Amino acid sequence: MNYYPCRGYYYKQLFMKRTLIVLVACCLISGTIVYGQKPEPVYSMTKEIKPREWYESQATAWEKITKRTPKNTAAWFNFYMANRMMRIYDEDGDVAPVERFKMLNSIVDQMEKHIPGSYEYHYTRWYNSSNDPAAFTSLEKAYQLDPVRPETYSGLVTYYELKRDLQHRDEILRKWFESRDPIPGLLHYNYNVLMSLDANAILLTAGDNDTYPAWILQAARNIRPDVMVINIHMLLTDDYRKQIFSALGATNLPLGSNPDTEERQAFRKQLVAHIAKNQQGRPVYVAVTASGSAHTEAIQDKLYLTGLAYRYSEQKIDNLALLRKNFEQRFILDYQKIPLAYEPFQNVVDLANGNYVVPAMNLYEHYRTSGEMQKAKTMKEMALQLAGKAGFGDEVKVYFENQTAQEHDASE
User: Fold this and answer.
1) H or E stretch at 346
2) What is the pTM of this model?
3) Per-residue DSSP letter, 369
4) Which residues neighbour 70 within 8 Å (Cβ) at sequence distance 6 or greater?
5) Cα separation of 271 and 236, whole Å?
6) pLDDT digits 0-9 by tens, 29-86
């Protein structure tokens, strides 16, 4: 039997970094595209990823409206959002990060002047604080003004999670699900993540789209409530970390009083290793979205790809058998081919689905070696389809072409 503790990580280095380049930094290949200045709604990149030029054109278009009609709350909100989303491109752009923050602060100040009592002002004031608990009153005020609008839900969930007020957290999560705001494809994806884990597992995540949908499924649909989903970045908050480690029966790790970015990155690696090695009998998984040297360098040789997550184990495990079981018995995969719900933000779903490619390639090799050629063909087709939609299809196509050439050479 073959064991591949780092096989998924190897493939991920080949292909997944390329995915981020193509989908997140797509501005690099869109320089010749000219965007008009027709104002359109601007969403967070957790929902929709657009080229830099698009956000620039939207910032210009919405700014013009704020000048013509300074009481237009939607114009101010979208003007802010366009500038906020451009932050990801600032490293390669004309605006330094510090200047961008000044611009965002200036927009919020102008909103306070022109639309001070509005939902948009209070929500944006909180959003601009980057989850600062001191600004929670603004988020709370926005929610009171319009409890139906879903923009406030992620912030409320984060606040209550950090306080470990699970009752209020779950109330908002259920309300979020009922709002129909969660992206169907991301709910399907996170369902598969949760269903592939052993009982009472700990799942370490690192972003919005691998954390909130999982919590929503647990709270609103009672799907795998036994799994403890922990966002690694939230553990940088001292009081929260102490509570989580206490619940896990692990010793707390102190973080410096004024840690810089480099120290925070090193600390995240320590956190992941500390939780994995002090699991107290609970199986520990790292979501594929949280894997790689940024978080798992210290335990990389003890992570085994079992589906959409890596299982930590001190001893070798038969992860190929677990991969088979998850793909053949536990995963819901039809949504990849025929979405049964309208997907307004398909590109984010395609990016998430790109995470199936690495395990599919592992299974392709396994099925081919085992002589199960039809199943190998199915995995190959899945990998090519999803990689193509996620933006790294050429690389995966070359991989399979090389595999075919090797098989031909071996047969001669």
Assistant:
1) helix 346-353
2) 0.89
3) H
4) 114
5) 9
6) 233 345 667 999 999 999 999 999 999 999 999 999 999 999 999 999 999 999 999 9
